[in-house]
Design goal:
binds adenosine-5'-diphosphate; globular; six-stranded mixed sheet; Rossmann fold
Length: 229
């Protein structure tokens, strides 16, 4: 039996806006094995971000079944959803989403503040290790505006892995970077996968980014239209 980290069946997501309904996911099925590196591609508006938000437990599907790491999550309360998200998912966004006034160290420590049983000293050590693992051991006191775009994204990656997630979800992680910085970010992500076995789900428009991944899933109108390894 394959060890599935994501198992989603017949996912539907309807956004209701006044008397209008948007059907963003229309019965989408996807299975992702532990340790896989997968890219999700598709035209604008096809439902990629909605799928990421659903798989990442930021939002719930309107209907369907979803098991993350074997835990059923489609019907959890908001608090339960936040708990499983904090334990199992790391996020990397196109726009980095760092706190502008906080140092790299403070940005990476942030997710640990919501977790009990960790001393400030342990928190600092964990954040330093995470920054070292993305090659930023000598930049821990820098603030975002003192770092290049690629370095800022590496801080975001360090933050995403601080809770030792089962999955890292990256929505256009290289979208705001030049080619060289984008390549470096892909290298950092792929190395994480190799060293720790972290499953990577990467939404991208860029065929070159997708070419680095084991599997490419194409989405259109809220369903998977192609899935190739
Ligand atoms: N919060 C929302 N409220 C209403 N409609 C939304 C919301 N988020 C996305 N949509 C709509 O759902 C569809 C899919 O959007 P999205 O998942 O963002 O696609 P993609 O990331 O592939 O561009 C689009 O038609 C979009 O306008
Ligand atoms: Mg999107």
């Amino acid at each position: 039996m394959t060890d599935l980290v994501v198992e989603a069946k017949d996912l539907r997501k309807i956004y209701v806006m006044g008397d209008m309904e948007v059907h963003a996911l229309r019965g989408l099925n996807i299975e992702i094995a532990r340790g896989e590196v997968i890219s999700i591609m598709g035209p604008s508006g096809s439902g990629k971000s909605t799928l990421m938000n659903t798989l990442g437990c930021l939002d719930r599907p309107t209907s369907g079944e979803y098991y993350l790491d074997g835990e059923e999550v489609a019907n959890l309360t908001d608090d339960q959803l936040a708990d499983i998200r904090n334990r199992k998912v790391g996020f990397v966004f196109q726009s980095f989403n760092l706190l502008p006034r906080a140092t790299a160290l403070a940005n990476v420590e942030l997710p640990l503040r919501y977790k009990g049983g960790i001393t400030p000293k342990q928190r600092r050590e964990m954040a330093e290790n995470a920054l070292e693992s993305v090659g930023l051991g000598d930049r821990i006191k820098h603030r975002p505006n003192e770092l290049s775009g690629g370095q800022q994204q590496r801080v975001a990656i360090a933050r995403s892995l601080i809770n030792d997630p089962s999955i890292i979800m990256a929505d256009e992680p290289t979208g705001n970077l030049d080619t060289k910085s984008g390549d470096e970010i892909m290298e950092v992500l792929l190395k994480l996968n190799q060293d720790k076995g972290t499953t990577l789900i990467i939404v991208t428009h860029d065929p070159e980014v997708a070419a680095h991944t084991d599997r490419i899933v194409m989405i259109r109108d809220g369903v998977v239209v192609e899935d190739k390894k």
